[in-house]
Structure formats: structure tokens, C-alpha cells
Amino acid sequence: MRYQVKDCVALVTGANRGIGKAITEGLLARGAAKVYAAVRKLSSVEELIDQYGDRIVPIEIDLEKPATIESAAKTAEDVTLVVNNAGVLRTESPLSQEAVDALNFEMNVNVYGLMRMAQAFAPVLKKNGGGGFVQLNSVASLKSFPDFATYSASKAAAYSITQALKVMLSDEGIQVVSVHPGPIATDMGSQAGLDEVAEPPALVADAIVDALATGKFHAFPDSTAKQIGAAYESFAKSVIEAEMDEG
Asked: pLDDT tens digit string along 144-201?
């Protein structure tokens, strides 16, 4: 299954900054007709509107608030590509006194938010004849890092849900892509202490467009991600991407 972004109508969560903004701009640069910039505060999209005019449509989505997701799905009824980029990070180790609270917060956004997005927008994509559903999962979904282990755990759970969505949505003509960036130059990357090794967020947009166009499930955008992806490739093809019976 393959998907071309030219002339598509897309929705990107967390579109106002960092990776989300780079994805939004990357889709528009490749010919997307319109992008719903899904953010918590509509005013944060003004810079994108100034640059791209009516090709940017601000829409409220807060992954912690299911009502905003349900409302957005009713408004953005012409969407054929959904990119769930928004996520949260807490730098807590498993032994931290704040670890449980951190994991609860991260699971609510990074995992339950993904499920809410899929439940709301899969019917929209199906109604529109299929399309693409892209989830930002991080290399931390494949390898845990002690200083932000709760984030890694939430992204591992999100990756597991994304695998299930791949199987379930393929029959509806919806291509699912799991994106696994390494250190990217964003506020979140800085929070994790990754400034020295971080790479441009535009690489993520490029990887998403390539994965959609070539029918790939996994996307590894930057040099760190590619290194991990190369080591993971055999298992991914033999197990994750293979058709296997349950049980």
C-alpha cells in the first residue's frame, strides 16, 4: 500500500513547533492542498497562516481531552492523511519518586491520545476512500534510556498499538507508518539533553513522505535512528511486518 501526499488534505497534531511544524511545512512543500494544524492554542499557528495562507487551517486538539479530538474529526471530514506527532516527555528514571506520576502523564498523551486519534479518525479516512495514518514513536520505543525510562515505556506501548493499527486498518485502505526519530533539534530534544547530537526536524518530514510513497511501515529519519533501524531490520521484517496468526 502506498500513499502520495500531493494534493492531499492532512492533519498534523502538535503542528505549531518542532517536528510537527517541520512535518506541516514538508507536506505543503510536497504539494499537500491543505493541512489542518491541530494544536491546543489556535493562536500558536499564526506564523504558519502568515506564511501559507488558507492552506493552513487551525484546529483545536488536545490529546488529553477526548472531546477536542471528537470535535476535530467532525470538522476535518475531508482528511485523508493524519499525522499524530504530538507527545510529551518527562525525564524520570524508574527509581525516581516521580516515576509513576510521569508514566501516567506520558501514557495518557502518548498512548491513550494515539488510541483516541485512531478511534476518531479511522472512520473519516475510511469514508474518504482510505489514506494514511502516521504515528511518531521514537527510537525510545525500541530501546529504553534510564534517564527517561517512563517516556521510553510510553513510546514502546504506542509502538505496540501502532502495530495493531497497521493490521486492522490495512483492510480499510489506510496505510499506517511508525516513525522512530533519534535525537532531533527540538525543545523536547533539549529537555532530554540531546542538543550536541540532534539533527534537523526536516529529516522526519522527509522520512514520512518517503515511507508513505514506498509503502514502508517503519521510518528511521536521522543517523542515530538509521543505525538502530539497521540493527532492528531483520526482526522487524521477520516478525513485526510479517503476517502471523494470533495465539
From this structure: 999 999 999 999 999 999 999 999 999 999 999 999 999 998 766 566 566 666 799 9
What is the arithmetic mean of pLDDT over 236-246? 84
C-alpha cell at 9: 488534505
pLDDT digits (tens, 9 = 90+) for 215-234: 999 999 999 999 999 999 99
What domains can you pick out in the chain, each with its CATH number? 9-239 (3.40.50.720)
User: How many Cα atoms sit within 13 Å of 94 on the Cβ side?
Assistant: 7
Find all residues with CB under 8 Å of 165, minimum gap 6, and list them.
Answer: 118, 122, 133, 135, 176
Residue 64, all three cell numbers = 488529553
In sequence order, what DSSP letters do the residues of the chain get, joined into one string? -----TT-EEEEETTTSHHHHHHHHHHHHTT-SEEEEEESSGGGGHHHHHHHGGGEEEEE--TT-HHHHHHHHHH-TT--EEEE---------TTSTTHHHHHHHHIIIIIHHHHHHHHHHHHHHHHTT-EEEEEE--GGGTS--GGGHHHHHHHHHHHHHHHHHHHHHHTTTEEEEEE---SBSSHHHHHTT-GGG-B-THHHHHHHHHHHHHT-SEE--SHHHHHHHHHHHHHIIIIISS-----
